[in-house]
Amino acid sequence: MTDLTQQKCEACRADAPKVSDDELKTLIREIPDWVPQVRDGVMQLEREYKFKNFKQAMAFAIKVGEMAEAEFHHPSILLEWGKVTVTWWTHAINGLHRNDFICAAKTDALLAD
Fold first, then answer.
1. Closest C-alpha to 9, from 80, 88, 108, 109
2. pTM, to two decimals
3. Distance (Å, rounded) from C-alpha 64 to C-alpha 74?
4. What are phi and psi of 60, to 5 degrees?
5. To the nearest 10°, the Cα dihedral for 56, 61, 65, 70?
6. How many domains does the chain have?
7. Residue 37 φ/ψ, nearest 5 degrees
8. Does 29 reside within a domain?
9. Residue 31 domain-assigned (yes or no)
10. Which residues have CB under 8 Å from 73's CB, separation 6+?
11. What is the CATH number of the domain that holds 84?
């Protein structure tokens, strides 16, 4: 499988296919720190990142926002003191699309920047 961080998000429409159970099992192996969960009936990917202080957490949240804007795919970002929680899902299909896994991998890669 191609490294998810090297892929680009594709435009997603309401009729785009959701990730199948088999695809989920394969893709989640590439982003092992992310937790698939169902919230309000919608499958999502979520990860919590910890930082030493609010300033570092805020800087990371800004990086996530900039990456999301570049991909034109936008997560939920919860910024707290020393913590950022990022949640990816595709609003257009009310579930997970390959784009969410691409962006989750790219979010992880931001830690190395």
1. 88
2. 0.93
3. 9
4. -65, -45
5. 50
6. 1
7. -150, 155
8. no
9. no
10. 9, 12, 88, 90, 99, 100, 102, 103
11. 3.30.1360.20
pLDDT in tens, 74-85: 999 999 999 999
C-alpha torsion angle, residues 74, 105, 33, 54 (rounded to 10): -60
Q: Give the pLDDT score at 1.
A: 41
The letter for the amino acid at 38 is V
CA–CA separation, 39 and 109 (whole Å): 25
Average of per-residue pLDDT across 41-69: 98
- On whether residue 113 sits in a domain, the answer given is yes
Which residues form the domain of 75? 42-113
CA 52-32-53 angle, to 5 degrees, is 10
Confidence label for 112 from pLDDT (cuts 50, 70 and 90): confident
| Amino acid identity, position 30 | E
pLDDT value of residue 2: 54
91 belongs to a structural domain: yes
